[in-house]
């Protein structure tokens, strides 16, 4: 059976980008013919400084976000990465398979390190090899992520292929990134050429999953648009990044295509479209944030779910790590 793996870092709150680019699609992938494994990647979060008390809280809050969005712990394996030590163990082996030159090509590292590449953690540099370990520890065949993670999933394929080739085995699968639909690249609400991220300077740039209805409405009303009304066709969105982003968000939230949204609103002014988008977002997101808050009232229950999830994850991961050690020739006596 095909197996799906994906994860989100518990660093800062969940954004609409994480929801549309990842979680919303994961929910739709839970089915009887797919095994689904969803992780809170806390070991990835600490590649940049995280306050210890906040990290625990952020991990629980992220778990609440998965659950509130419809990840069902009966159908999916749900856990935080650090409770399954096999991730770090396999990552070390992949550090010895991946090449320094491959890491040097990672655009996310270059963006995050900026001019300060000498001062960032070694973990940030090795980040993609831990991500490959996350995926391949479960022999995952499908990885649903937003557009920004495509290069990392491609590197995972390179690591799997080099491992198989170096050791003359056919062991790790060549994973497919699943990147489809209008929500794969949700942009900053103040600048349609930048991606919406947890870490952007102004809160007005992003929708947080825990924003209340008034805040969501205000952010969409103040979102940057342009002077033209909505075009007659999607081709009319070319060269209009802010307009395209708002149409894409509407499409993704309503499970429609951008074409369908344009058909409904062609020629409309922003003064009409933005309030409609805000209403749609509030309708879709408030039940999730209400449920997140409710779940966070009982952190012990979240912890129990994650402990159970980690146990199930290890049942899949342990034999795969054992076999990997054996292939590599690491003695276990
Ligand atoms: P992270 O925590 O940055 O983001 C989590 C997921 O949200 C997606 N995403 C977006 N999608 C559309 N528009 C946006 N503006 C936007 N911002 C974020 C990301 O593409 C991602 O799917 N390295 C990963 C976490 C990770 C992982 C893995 C993912 C670690 N191991 C194994 C898949 C498989 C990351 O930093 O995601």
From TrEMBL:
Residue numbers of motif 'KMSKS' region? Answer: 195-199
Locations listed in the record? Cytoplasm
Q: Where does L-tryptophan bind?
A: 134
Q: What is its EC number?
A: 6.1.1.2
Main location (coarse class): cytoplasm
User: Which NCBIfam families does the UniProt entry name for this protein?
Assistant: trpS
Q: Assembly and interactions?
A: Homodimer.
Q: Which family does it belong to?
A: Belongs to the class-I aminoacyl-tRNA synthetase family.
Q: Name it.
A: Tryptophan--tRNA ligase
* Organism in which the protein naturally occurs: Octadecabacter dasysiphoniae
């Amino acid at each position: 059976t095909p197996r799906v793996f994906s994860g989100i870092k518990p660093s800062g709150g969940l954004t609409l980008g994480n929801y549309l680019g990842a979680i919303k699609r994961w929910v739709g992938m839970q089915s009887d013919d797919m095994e689904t494994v969803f992780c809170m990647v806390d070991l990835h979060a600490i590649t940049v400084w995280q306050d210890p008390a906040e990290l625990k809280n952020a991990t629980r809050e992220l778990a609440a976000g998965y659950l509130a969005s419809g990840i069902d712990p009966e159908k999916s394996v749900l856990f935080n990465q650090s409770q399954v030590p096999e991730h770090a163990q396999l990552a070390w082996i992949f550090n010895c398979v991946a090449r320094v030159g491959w890491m040097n090509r990672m655009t996310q590292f270059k963006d995050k390190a900026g001019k300060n590449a000498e001062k960032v953690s070694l973990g940030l540099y090795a980040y993609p090899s831990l991500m490959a370990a996350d995926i391949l520890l479960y022999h995952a065949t499908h990885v649903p992520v937003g557009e920004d993670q495509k290069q990392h999933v491609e590197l995972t394929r390179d690591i799997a292929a080099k491992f198989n080739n170096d050791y003359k085995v056919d062991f790790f699968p060549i994973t497919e990134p699943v990147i489809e639909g209008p929500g794969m690249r949700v942009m900053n609400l103040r600048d349609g050429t930048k991606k919406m991220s947890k870490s952007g300077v102004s809160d007005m740039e992003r929708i947080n999953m825990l924003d209340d209805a008034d805040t969501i409405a205000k952010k969409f009303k103040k979102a940057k648009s342009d002077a033209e009304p909505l075009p007659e066709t999607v081709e009319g969105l070319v060269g209009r990044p802010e307009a395209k982003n708002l149409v894409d968000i509407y499409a993704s939230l309503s499970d429609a295509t951008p074409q369908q949204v344009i058909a409904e609103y062609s020629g409309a002014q922003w003064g009409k479209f933005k309030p409609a988008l805000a209403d749609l977002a509030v309708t879709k997101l408030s039940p999730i944030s209400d449920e997140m808050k409710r779940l966070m009232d009982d952190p012990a229950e979240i912890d129990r779910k994650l402990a159970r999830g980690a146990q199930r994850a290890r049942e899949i991961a342990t034999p795969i790590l054992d076999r990997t050690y054996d292939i590599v020739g690491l003695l276990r006596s």
